[in-house]
Amino acid sequence: MELVAIDLEGSGAQDRDREAILEIALVPIVGWQPDMTAAYCTLINPQRPIPRRPWISPGPTDDALRTAPTIEAVGPEIVRRISGKYLVGHNIGVDWRLLHRRCPTVAPAGLIDTLRLARQTDQAGPNSLAALIERHGLIEDVNRLAPSSAPHRALWDTVACSLLMRALAVNLLGDHASAHALLGVADIRLDVPAGGVSTQPSLFDQSL
Prior knowledge:
Layout: E1 3-10, E2 21-30, E3 33-34, E4 40-43, H1 62-66, H2 71-82, E5 86-89, H3 92-102, E6 110-113, H4 114-119, H5 129-135, H6 139-145, H7 154-173, H8 179-186, E7 188-191, E8 196-197
Parallel strand pairs: 1-5, 5-6
Antiparallel strand pairs: 1-2, 2-3, 2-4, 6-7, 7-8
């Protein structure tokens, strides 16, 4: 079973069908650790100006995006890196909907949502990615693994999510947690052609 952490930076849901992917990062998870030697991260040219909005990182400026590849250019590489693998992300449903809209041929095996996973723990406090990374003492590890990135950029958030998944799995399943054990309680299978999520009960389907 192969896991790939993912994060997208987009133009915003208010763009509706015109929402664009501005940046994507994909990091394989091997032995519960992000494999930075196989990490993939790129800005993506939306082929139109993007208004500055509070949730858009300062990095993807129009000047930077103008020289980036288009989604059509990087699509085959994204499909190659994702298809048949489990995607791990924080509030991953948002990323998945945008990715599937812009890259409809991508076919992951399933999704693991660290936000929903965090909500199953007995720890109090906010469940944003930033808050969880701080709570679990992972900030230095993320900075070490992604020194050229920063919070709210795709690569930093992807590395953060990959480390967070392990911490949450240990919290829920104990020190001997495995990816297969995690999927035993958190498998979210996808009906990829329809873009839907299986309705089978799972840990992530429980009322919070």
